[in-house]
Amino acid sequence: MSELFDAVDALVASRAALPPPAERKRLRSAHGLTIDEVAGALKVRRATVSGWESGKTEPRPPERDAYARLLDKLAELYPVAAPAPVPAAETVPAPEAPVPATLTGVPDPSETRPLSTGPASEAADMTETENTQTPAPVTAPAPVAAAPAAVSRPGSTTRSSTSSSRPPGARKAAPTNSPAGGADPRFENGPLAVVDVEDGKVVAFGVGGLVLDVPAKSLSSLVEWTLAEAKLGQPKLSGPGRPADPLLVLTQAALERYGLPVTLTAQERDAGRIPENHKVIKQLTRADWKLTKRGFGPWARIYRPAKGSERQCVQLCIPSWNALDPRFWGNATQLPPAELARVLGTFATRVMTPRGSTAVTGLELMTALHPPTHAVRDEETGALRQADTKTPGSLGSDPVDCAPPEAPDGHPVLNALNLPRFHVRGPSEKLFEEAYDWARPMTDEECTLRFLVGLDVNMAFGAGANGLTVGLGEPTHVMNPVFDPKLPGSWLVDLSHVDLSHVKVGKEWVELDGSLLPSPFTPKGDRPTGPAWYATPTVAYAAELGYDVTPTEAYLRYDNGRYLDGWYQRLRDAYLATMADLGVTTDLSPEDFLTAMDGYKDRDPELGIVITAIKATIKGGIGKLRERPRGEGWRPGERWRALERPTWRPDIRAAVISRTRVNLHRKIVKHAAFTGQYPVAVLSDCVVYAANGESPLDVLPYRDGKPLPGGFKLGVNPGLVKHEGTQTVLWGEEVRERFNAPDLNLARSIKDGTVTDADNGE
To answer: Which of the residues 3, 62, 99, 659 has an alpha carbon 20 to 30 A from that of 176?
Structure first.
């Protein structure tokens, strides 16, 4: 009889009801799942799941029943929202009453994000990469609305800065390119507002030219008003995530109005906050508002403990306290309030609402797209509760200690090694995956050429993160492992036998002048001399060049996934959309692209600031994965605050940098094999070649408008290159002679010819 029952069950499973293909994709995306994760759970190929979602194929038993079960559970968590009823044309709606913003989640009182970026631990900790996968062309979106004109004052609560003819009390329709036009009524006024004082009245400038009258007389009442009436915030970026808290940017006039200092003293700047006994903090405390552990600084967060699912939290940004680092936000601090709202609003709409420095925001974006926990339905009560296990594809809620070779100096995991005091670890003890900083003297033939032309890879580190499999959990120590290019980890292997004079390019062996090429295995381009620790992409590249690799030891991460894919895609889309607004689109010919890039930021300086901030978010976010101690009395061997984050993952940072460097070297080798040209300098994502002409087209081989396959290609897409700058060969030789440095890296100064050691965030 049981066999009959099994047969009946199989028959039922073969016809398990499934939602339409588009709904299958929606449910998967709503829960933050990738196609790879679904395919892995159902033990099918990635292309199989893709076919189910596109409607090209239908699942068969036994996978069909499991797939239907997955979709049923996701449908319970993410039901299709019913469309709002549309009132009849003659119906006049009643005045809208203020609706408190209902948010979910609880701010972490132990939050320890730094107050501002530092060159050593955020941007300078990073390097950029390129992408071998060119994204599909992106058509130019509707241009971002220009900065609003002078504010009109009809006396309404909500008004537009461009609608002086609008009658009092009228509400401006939100522009289509702003979140104010979205479907969530809680955030109909956009993600943020710049609070200023004009003619003695407090006003808040929002996105799309929106202006709100602010009745608040104190900072605590300003926070109350923001949560109850302002309708500011941003919908969640991932199904299991939570909406972004509203952001208020306080101008100097607003600081004075609410009793805060316009600038910080030297002592307060060092502390990153105003004293806890400040009168405004006392005022907030009396009103039952709390601050996170980082206190009241340039990026303060003010909250009350959540009651049920209701979250009450407001983020502040104070530009005059150096919240907007000029290296990454340009002159944003000097912009009028309406223009500043446009810059920050565009960034928030396309990337996310800023949560701190660009580096902090880059890290927060990773978490927002892969929340550590998710809601599940209790089978007994039917109520939703937070899962006990981490969300699939996320890093979870608990920090993970790195492997000893991945640990920076002073990390407590090194205490167990009992290293001698002042011991300096070498490549066989420490993972050195960093960006390129390599240069060589020019050959006699190169000195006869006229120019040095610099090529820069677009969004190199973001592109290097795309499609990269990284570890999600703890490392496993393995001795004498067999190398697996699909398994993320750190490998101890000797690559000194790889000879760049004789390598495989594609499937063919080619002969090159290895003395004119940087090694792909070290940041300085030196050939390794023995065993060293490398991330998976570096070892895989050695095998790709045609050489055997035999690791003797490894720390491997069997729990892995493409954690950074969604992060890269959102930043890529933000970058391409903003570049399209500036007139640089993905469909331009090489000549038209060079013309469009000439002075592109001058066409709209405010969007130029957004572009810089997007790129800084990529670099800083990757660099933040290995944040170093920031004072606080830290001593080597002790834990520091950043180690308590699940996103403190130096192994992920190393993998991204490794892949970026390898991708760049692959193009350099391809170019050398085809043209006989070799770089004279490489810095991070910039390569310098000697040429007889000033243009990149004098360096790059194009035939009938088509570039060298697998080589450098001009274009705006991530992984393609743009013109970094051109100087003369005489300039390069004169600079090296002046500094008595034949190996001076000319890529550092190729953009404008200025030789300086000033920090620019690279």
So the answer is: 99
Beta pairing, strands 706-707 & 508-511: unpaired
pLDDT tens string 435-460: 999 999 999 999 999 999 999 999 99
Rounded Cα–Cα distance for residues 504 and 617 (Å): 36
Structure tokens at 296: 């009241």
Closest CA to 473 of 703, 651, 311, 287: 651
Q: How far is CA 131 from CA 308, 563, 662, in A?
A: 44, 16, 10
* Contacts of 386-395 spanning 24+ positions with Cβ under 8 A: 391/32, 391/240, 392/32, 392/33, 392/37, 392/41, 393/32, 393/33, 393/34, 393/37, 393/472, 393/561, 393/563, 394/32, 394/370, 394/472, 394/563, 395/367, 395/370, 395/472, 395/563, 395/646, 395/647, 395/649
- Considering only CA atoms, which of 721, 715, 716 is closest in space to residue 686? 721
Beta bridge partners of 503: 510
- HSE at residue 744, side-chain half, CA atoms within 13 A, is 19
Alpha carbons 342 and 637: distance in angstroms, whole number:
45
- If phi over 0 gives left and psi between -120 and 50 gives alpha, with beta otherwise, what is residue 382? left
Distance CA 655, CA 475 (A): 14
CA of 717: how far to CAs of 236, 484, 607, in Å?
Answer: 27, 30, 18
Q: Cα-Cα-Cα-Cα dihedral of 571, 575, 581, 583, to 10°?
A: -160
- Please tell me whether the peptide bond between 62 and the residue prior to it is cis, using omega within 30 degrees of 0: yes
Residue 10: predicted pLDDT: 55
| C-beta atoms surrounding 494 within 10 Å | 16
Q: List helix spans (H) across 582-723.
A: 590-597, 605-624, 650-675
Residue 77 makes CB contacts below 8 A (sequence gap 6+) with 30, 31, 239, 375, 376, 377, 384
Smallest CA-to-CA distance from 233 within 195, 192, 182 is with 192
Residues 6+ apart with CB under 8 A from 699: 453, 455, 677, 689, 691, 693, 712
483 near 537, Cβ under 8 Å?
no
- Please name the residue ranges forming H helices in 218-313: 219-225, 252-257, 266-271, 279-286
Point out which residues pair with 726 in neighbouring strands. Answer: 453
Which amino acid would we find at residue 513? D
659-686 tens-digit pLDDT: 999 999 999 999 999 999 999 999 999 9
State the pTM of this model.
Answer: 0.79
The pLDDT of residue 152 is 40
DSSP-based three-state secondary structure for 277: coil
- Quote the tokens at residue 387: 């899962």
Q: Which has the higher per-residue pLDDT, 332 or 115? A: 332
As a whole number of angstroms, the distance between CA 656 and CA 537 comes to 9
Phi, psi of 203 (to 5 degrees): -130, 155
DSSP per-residue string spanning 470-516: EE-S--EEEESPPP-TTS-EEEEEE-TT--TTEEEETTEEEE--GGG
626: confidence class by pLDDT, cuts 50, 70, 90:
very high
Q: Answer yes or no: is pLDDT of 639 > 50.
A: yes
DSSP lists the bridge partners of residue 195 as: 204, 250
Distance CA 216, CA 639 (A): 42
Q: What angle do CA 669, 675, 676 make, to 5 degrees?
A: 75
Place of tokens 């994709």: 25
Euclidean distance between CA atoms 393 and 565, whole angstroms: 11
The C-alpha atoms of residue 501 and residue 515 are separated, in whole angstroms, by 8
Residue in 258, 257, 274 with CA at minimum distance from that of residue 321: 274
Closest CA to 681 of 725, 627, 650, 620: 725
Instruction: Report pLDDT for 41.
Output: 87
Phi then psi for residue 476, to 5 deg, are -115, 130
Rounded CA-CA distance 390/398 in Å is 9
